[in-house]
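User: Run a structure prediction on this.
Assistant: Running it now.
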Amino acid sequence: MVGLSLRPDAPHGISEARATYGGLFLGMEGTLLVCAEPRWMVVGAAAWLGAAVARAVSMAVDRRVGVANIQGVVVEATIGLLHAAPSIAAAI
């Protein structure tokens, strides 16, 4: 789905993909849901917005603008802004 390929001769790559694309996000989001602390949601916002910025910069530097990358930026930025919403609402 993300365009990465895993080599059968390097099984640690599968573990790395599962840890990064599965465990990291599950751990972070699970903690944020359980704690339900608006201040902590800033961490989630920073992570998702950071991913959106990194993807946008990558598209510009690599000159590779595609539908999947644009969708990625939109989804990541949206999730980041949703995480930031409690802090924004508290500041208003």
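Residues 12-91 form one domain.
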